Structures are given as structure tokens and as C-alpha cells.
Amino acid sequence: MTITIKRCMLDDLVLLQEVGAETFNETFEDQNSPENMKAYLEKAFDLNQLEKELSNPSSAFYLIYSNEELAGYLKVNDDDAQTEMMGQDSLEVERIYIRKKFHKQGLGKYLLNKAMDIAAERNKAKIWLGVWEKNENAIAFYEKMGFVRTGAHSFHMGDEEQTDFIMTKKLHGER
User: Fold this and answer.
1) DSSP 3-state helix, strand, coil percentages of the chain (rounded to 5)?
2) Could you confirm whether 142 is annotated as catalytic?
3) Is 175 helix (H, G, I), strand (E, B) or coil?
4) Which one of 44, 76, 150, 169 has the largest count of C-beta atoms within 10 Å of its C-beta?
5) Contacts with 55 (C-beta within 8 Å, 6 or more apart), sequence order
6) Does domain 3-123 have CATH number 3.30.190.20?
């Protein structure tokens, strides 16, 4: 298996929209109403919204390929692009999504390691993320990767308010 991670550029906008909507839907459609899923997908993966996010110098998207097939993506934020103000010494992992057919192949770990590399390059002291309290597989993965629960915040899925656990990992120069 050949793994490639590349920075997402404006030329990749439609590709990002497709993989973003697909992976989010695959991950959460069974636990949410069709109406709330539709509302969220239309807002979060609108081309204008994604272009705005891609153009923000404090955010970056990365696409991951397995054997040259798009398998998923990563989004990181620092400075004022963070969804919670966690300080200048923090990097947020806003999204890690892998297409269902690529699950259980270690690709999430590749993307999380990429995020930790970015944090180290930017001299960040910690990396953090929000994960839905009902996403037990993701919580277990992040705990295995050294993250600890440090708080919670609200996430709006259509007209429903949900709770995301905030999980943080202090960086010490080693993984």
C-alpha cells in the first residue's frame, strides 16, 4: 500500500467537497435525522464555504491517497481559525475523515501524525480536537494516540445541539 498526503489547493475544491460530504455522511447518517444531515452538509460543504476555509492562511486541508485513490482528508487550524480559542500555542485538528472502504488501514493515524508534524513545525505546545460524545470508535482512537479529554463544547447538527468532547495532547517533540 502506497500512502500519499498532499496539501489541498483551490484546484482541489470540488474533490474536497465530494470527499467531505461523503465521509461525513457515512460517519453520521445513522445517528442523525435526514433533515439535520441535509442541513449540515449543505452548509459545511458548500463550495463558497470551502473556498473561504481553503483561502484562510490559518487553516489547511490535506488529502490522503491510498494507492493513488483518494481515501480521506485532514483539516487543521491555528491562531484565529480555531473553533475554540485555545491559545497561540495550540493547533486544532478540526476534521479527520476517512472513506468507509479505507477504514481500519491506519490512515487516520497517518493524518494525525501529519497534524502533529505541522504542530511541531509551527512550535505548538499542544494539539486538540473536538469529537462527538457518541463517536466511541473515534474517542478510543484518540485516547490510544495519547489524547485526553479536557472539556466539551456544543456542535450544531441542523436544529439539534450536540456535545463534542474536547481532547488535547501535549507535544513533547516525540510521538
Assistant:
1) 40, 35, 25
2) yes
3) coil
4) 76
5) 10
6) no
Assigned C-alpha cell, 72 = 480521506
Name every residue whose Cβ is closer than 8 Å to that of residue 69 and which is 6 or more positions away in sequence.
Answer: none
Whole-prediction pTM value?
Answer: 0.92
11-67: per-residue pLDDT in tens? 999 999 999 999 999 999 999 999 999 999 999 999 999 999 999 999 999 999 999
Strands of 67-123, DSSP E: 69-78, 90-98
Q: Nearest CA to 3 among 111, 90, 157, 101?
A: 111
- Residues ≥6 apart with Cβ < 8 Å to 140: none
Catalytic residue of the set 73, 97, 110, 142: 142
Q: Where are the domains of the chain?
A: 3-123
74: β partners: 62, 96
